[in-house]
Specification:
The protein is 23% helix and 21% strand. The strands form 3 sheets. A 9-stranded antiparallel β-sheet has the order 3-4-6-5-10-11-9-8-7. A two-stranded antiparallel sheet has the order 1-2. It has one domain: HIT-like (HIT family, subunit A), CATH 3.30.428. It has 295 residues and is an alpha+beta fold. The longest helix has 21 residues.
């Protein structure tokens, strides 16, 4: 299936496209000034710069945005600085899921937004600059290449992940991808096709919260210490004709970590960057077996 054409909306001056490979690069020199791992005071704790009032969950516009026009937001998961996602419990994580959904709906309704990416970086090893539990949203004025290709290829969860299956509940399944580029990689997907966060019914939302608690508990037990990770929600674009352009879009959540052992990162090598082909030292089936045992 041929991906839908890229929109022709004029690119801002800080968005560049490689003339040979077509890679989009956002030049954001202003982000050099953002705070880096502050050691005194947390701007995300109640009473801090970004959270002056008490809250359960909260969102605000990023002061150091990677995209213009208020299209980057920070999502606070909890007022508790030392919490983890799993420590919030199912009801706490359900509030986070609702926040993801609400921000997707509001940003996706804008005329200048074609794709809403909800994501999280945890740990200095993956670039998180503040340790307080939080995620982010980038609202793109186009559909980036990777999601376009994923949905154009009619991505769907493995019908039978077999030895790569980790856990499931009534609505969701979790498995290790067949060919992951990271040593730790998981995909969470609804069992029945749902296009985006807004399409989940209350039972699926609750089951998502439950399986997120389960998965992140296992991941922090994998090496008996907090695991640095990146997580992102892959959902249908928000263009006016997205339903017809991406009729088989299947919502899913990816979680990856660079750790191949306790505190040991796997670094991307020159050959991998140059060739675009990767070498993973961890067998997907072995990772899945370990995570199943940690339930």
């Amino acid at each position: 299936m041929t991906p839908p054409p890229i929109r022709t909306r004029p690119a801002p001056p800080d968005q560049r496209v490689d003339p040979h490979l077509g890679t989009t690069v956002h030049v954001v020199g202003s982000r050099q000034a953002r705070p880096n791992l502050p050691t005194v005071g947390c701007p995300f704790c109640p009473g801090g710069l970004e959270a002056p009032e008490p809250f359960d969950v909260r969102w605000f516009t990023n002061r150091w945005p990677a995209l213009p026009d208020d299209r980057c937001e920070v999502l606070l998961y909890t007022p508790v600085h030392d919490a983890t996602l799993w420590s919030l419990g199912v009801e706490g994580v359900r509030k986070v899921v609702d926040l993801w959904t609400n921000r997707t709906l509001e940003l996706g309704a804008r005329d200048d937004v074609d794709f809403v990416l909800v994501f999280e970086n945890r740990g200095a090893e993956v670039g998180a600059t503040i340790s307080h539990p939080h995620g982010q949203v980038y609202a793109y004025d186009h559909v980036p290449e990777r999601p376009r290709e994923i949905f154009a290829a009619d991505w769907k969860p493995d019908a039978d992940a077999g030895d790569r299956a980790v856990v499931s509940n009534d609505s969701w399944q979790v498995f290790v991808p067949y060919a992951p580029t990271y040593p730790v990689a998981l995909t969470l997907a609804p069992i029945e096709r749902v296009a985006d966060l807004a399409g989940l019914d209350p039972t699926q939302q609750q089951d998502l919260a439950g399986i997120l608690v389960d998965v992140f508990t296992r991941l922090d037990r994998l090496y008996d210490q907090p695991l640095p990770y990146m997580m992102w929600v892959m959902q249908r674009p928000t263009t006016a004709d997205a339903a017809s352009e991406y009729p088989n879009a299947w919502l899913h959540i990816d979680v990856v970590s660079p750790w191949r052992g306790p505190g040991v990162s796997r670094y991307i090598a020159a050959a991998e960057v140059a060739a675009g082909e990767y070498f993973n030292p961890v067998r997907p089936e072995d990772l899945a077996a370990r995570l199943r045992r940690l339930g």
